[in-house]
Amino acid sequence: MRVRINPRRFSGIVRIPASKSHTIRQLLIASLADGVSEIKYPLDSLDARSCVTVCRAFGAQITEYRAADLECPNPPDEKGEKLIKWEVRGNAAFKKGDSHLFNPIDVGNSGTTLYLALAAAGLQPKPVMFTGDEQIQKRSAAPLLKALAGLGVQCESNDGCAPITVKGPWAGGKVSLSCPTSQYLSALLLAAPLAPSGAVTEIEVPLLNERPYVEMTLSYLTAQKIPFETASLPSGKRDYSRFMIPGGSSWKAFSRSVPGDFSSAAFPAAAAAITKGPVTLLGLDPEDTQGDKFFLEMLKSMGCEVRWDENGGGHGVPTVTISRSGPLNGGTFDLNETPDLLPAAAVTAAYARRDTALVNVAHARIKETDRIAVMARELAKLGVRCTEKPDGLVIHGNEALSPIGENPVIDGCGDHRIVMAFAAAALGSPIPIEITSAESAAVTYPGFLATLGAEK
């Protein structure tokens, strides 16, 4: 699908969708637990739906409740169709193989679902095959599969890519796992506690990108008092270069709300920075462990006003308002912990004075697309010079776009974050901009393009 974004000042109030990372973790934990869990106000997107498919294949019973079903006063939309919660009856017997598995299991475009589910499937003695869309079939899980094999899990794949088949049982042992994506480590941390009693999983981590997402995963273990050990640094912080997780634990049913997604919030925040706003974002928790809240600090250092209101100004939830009265300034920003910010950061930097360097983020090349290369190529269509580095991107900002030709068309490459970043960029363009594969935005933020007034 191709959309057209017309230039305009973007301002107002935007409710941020729920976190994809939290939603997928809660779905998998609830599905592996004994009992009935409530996941309240989850993300209702293509990636989340892919995870629901996997969890049902694992034997979980998932019932969804919408506003109309719960007789909510003042339903969020006219038909009361907004998803309010999932009720998940877990299948704790899954790890014993006492359930019917549907093979192959299609994870769609969701890399998070694939990696986390691979480890969970390695707990039980029946082979489970995973497949996905064209992009997923090009994304390697080889380091994770090597680690799983070292723990006794049988793995077959297409050179590390889907289709992938895994078969337990999980025997435990000591493995080394290099993590260009933190999802490899999160996968083992969520599954290892469910290994048989006496099986100990030791993980050495020589490389770890995206540390805040590991902290998010560990917060779930801590909340349920599931034991694990790490070393400590002299500063008192945990040393994530080594983990020891004993088996014999179990996930318990829970009732939790899903916080708003700082990764998704980056795009309306970028639109505010580009067009000066003001834009007020609802639904974000300033105390959440999500690393992508760093984008707000980045905008502040570039010259934006970023103001939190804990009382929400009458909205009943914390709010953060982004605006700009002066110019945007370039800078150097380390995105190692937050690679998903690169597209939004790059388009914002195009409107800055002087250069902006996005550094230490080589793993942005192994996402849905090579985001460093794609951003450099597509920004060039808008008259923005970029210099590619092996581990980053330098944007030579000139405070404005100078599109090449009368009808610039951005190739979204089927990558939701590329599409949303350029949609935000287009608001400040001197002429309308078209973007292809716009439907991919629904992977994480189904309503974003409509919020910007996109035309099909």
Question: Could you provide a short overview of the structure?
Answer:
This protein is α/β, with parallel strands linked by helices.
How is this structure best described in words?
This protein is α/β, with parallel strands linked by helices. The protein has two domains: 3-16 and 260-451, Enolpyruvate transferase domain (UDP-n-acetylglucosamine1-carboxyvinyl-transferase, Chain); 20-257, Enolpyruvate transferase domain (UDP-n-acetylglucosamine1-carboxyvinyl-transferase, Chain, Alpha-beta prism), CATH 3.65.10.10. The chain has twelve helices and 23 strands. The strands form six sheets. The protein has a four-stranded mixed β-sheet. A four-stranded mixed β-sheet has the order 4-5-3-14, covered by helices on one side. The chain has a four-stranded mixed β-sheet with strand order 6-7-9-8. The protein starts with a strand and ends in a 5-residue tail after the last helix.
Question: Could you outline the blueprint of secondary structure elements for this entry?
Answer:
Layout: E1 3-5, E2 12-15, H1 20-32, E3 36-40, H2 46-57, E4 61-66, E5 83-89, E6 105-106, H3 111-121, E7 128-131, H4 142-150, E8 154-158, E9 161-167, E10 173-176, H5 183-191, E11 200-204, H6 211-223, E12 229-232, E13 238-246, E14 255-257, H7 262-275, E15 279-282, H8 294-302, E16 305-309, E17 319-323, E18 332-334, H9 342-349, E19 353-359, H10 371-380, E20 385-389, E21 392-398, E22 409-410, H11 416-426, E23 433-435, H12 448-451
Parallel strand pairs: 2-15, 3-14, 6-7, 10-11, 18-19, 22-23
Antiparallel strand pairs: 1-23, 3-5, 4-5, 7-9, 8-9, 11-13, 12-13, 15-17, 16-17, 19-21, 20-21
Helix pairs in contact: 1-2, 1-3, 2-3, 3-5, 5-6, 7-9, 7-11, 9-10, 9-11
